[in-house]
User: What shape does this take?
Amino acid sequence: MGSVSQSAASPFRDRVAVVTGGGSGIGRALARALAREGARIVVADVEPSAMAETIAAITAQGGDAIGVATDVSDLGQVRALADRAFGHYGAVHLLCNNAGVVVHGGLEAATHADWQWVIGVNLWGVIHGLEAFLPRLIAQRQGGHVVNTASMAGLVASPGLGIYNTTKYAVVGLSETLAKDLRRYGIGVTVVCPMGVATRIRDAERNRPPTLRNPPDTPRGEAVTLIGRTLTPEDVAAQTLAAVRAGELYVITHEESLPAIRRRCERLEAATRRASRRGVV
Assistant: This one.
C-alpha cells in the first residue's frame, strides 16, 4: 500500500481507511475486512441506517469506526467527509471510492435524469473523492492507496447498461492515469472490475434523489443477466485487499471474463492492422 506499511502482520494496521458506499455490498465488506486487519474506518453512505449497521458490525468485532452520511455526487458533502475523517483520526491512508448505482435499458430510452444520477454517483463521486482527499494525502507524506470500484462493464461493454458502462469505462481510464500521476508520491492505485456480485445495486433506485426520479409512467429497462458466477462481496473485498498489498493496479475478480476481454483486445488489434494495411499507420 505505497509506503504506508508499518506492521509485518498487516499493512493496514493502525491506518485510516475511508470507504464510500460503505453501508452495504462491496463497501461494507471492504470496511469490515480492513477493520479486521486493524485499520480504523470512516464509513460513508447515503443511507444512514445501512451505515450504522456497518459500524455496529465493525465495533462488534472490536474495530474502530465512525460514520458520515454522504452523497458522493455532492462535492460539498465529500469535502465535509474529508474534514471529518482527518479531524477525527488525524490522517487518512486508504481512500475507497466505492459508491455506485445503475439503471438498466437501452441508451435510446435513457432520460436526462438517468444520465445525471448515474454519472453523478459513479464518476463524479470518484472525482469528488480525489478532489477532497488527494491534496491532504500528498501533503501528509505517508504514502497511501486509492481504490476505485469500477466494473467489468468498464472493460467490456454490455447492451442495456450504456450509462453504467460509460461511467465505469471512465473510472478505469481515470485510475490508469492516476496510478502514473501518483507514483512519485508513493501512493498506489487499484481499480476493481468485478462481474456479478451479490449486492443490492439492482435496488439502487431506493436511494435515487427525488429531483432525479423519472415520471411514474417512464418505461423501465429489463435488468441485465450477467454471465459467470455471482461472488460474495467478501470475495471481492479479499481480492481487493490482496491487490492493494501487492501494489497491483487491476482486480479482475472473475476468470470467466477473460474470453470477453480477449475478444475486445483482438478486435482492437485487428482494427490497427487494417489501418496499417491501408497505409494509415
In short: The longest strand covers residues 187-193.
